[in-house]
Amino acid sequence: THTAYTHNNGLSTVAALVERAVSYNMDALAITDSGNVSGVPQFYDACIRSGIKPIVGLGFYFADDSRFSQSSNKYHLVLLAENNIGFMNLLALAERSFTEGFYQRPRIDIELLETYHDGLICLTGGLGGVVDKYLYAHRKSDAVCFVQKCLSLFGNDHFFLELQDNGLKKNQDMIAALIKLSKETGAQCVVSGGSFYL
């Protein structure tokens, strides 16, 4: 879920999202704004006041070479905090994405993930993610290498290939390719859908 705190992208206010979650009798709600954690305090408070479990996450921009490079390649990676350690690591990654990895946007890399992976659940980020973009560019060996690296960092219970169906032909192609990759690498899949408005 992207809120209005995902600048120039998300439209939903935190209050409206929580209100909608209550109306749907949801017991949990996640926030995964891109590049910043500005909405987390308001989101957390609103969820607690409404009896909804807040799941705090962040949609990161990922540099597949190095956060210090000046590459315009743009990849997405979603990280969710499982516990307090994960939340602190999420904040550390967010800070370092700005202070060390900023080039056109705040970015993290594999080196930072090696340091700050504890307590985090990693999702591959859909069509904009590293794995999907590698597969779509016929770079399967790079996709396999990235998946194996993430499995070694996060473990099989904390790393998931995202299957999304937004009605695009590209989604259908990716779902088939990701399921095949899942069988080859042992990585689990999760069905997701990016939400940018109510």
Task: Report what the structure shows.
It is a single chain. The protein is of the alpha/beta class and 198 residues long. It is built from 7 helices and 7 strands, in the order αβαββαβαβααβαβ. The chain has helices spanning 14-23, 40-49, 84-99, 110-115, 130-136, 140-154, 169-185, and strands spanning 28-31, 53-62, 75-81, 107-108, 120-123, 159-163, 188-191. Strands 1, 2, 3, 4, 5, 6 and 7 form a 7-stranded mixed β-sheet that branches. Strand 6 (159-163), helix 7 and strand 7 form a beta-alpha-beta unit. Helix 5 (130-136) packs antiparallel against helix 6. The chain is globular. The termini are close together. The relative contact order is 0.13.
List the helices and strands and how they pair.
Blueprint: H1 14-23, E1 28-31, H2 40-49, E2 53-62, E3 75-81, H3 84-99, E4 107-108, H4 110-115, E5 120-123, H5 130-136, H6 140-154, E6 159-163, H7 169-185, E7 188-191
Parallel strand pairs: 1-2, 2-4, 5-6, 6-7
Antiparallel strand pairs: 2-3, 3-5
Helix pairs in contact: 5-6
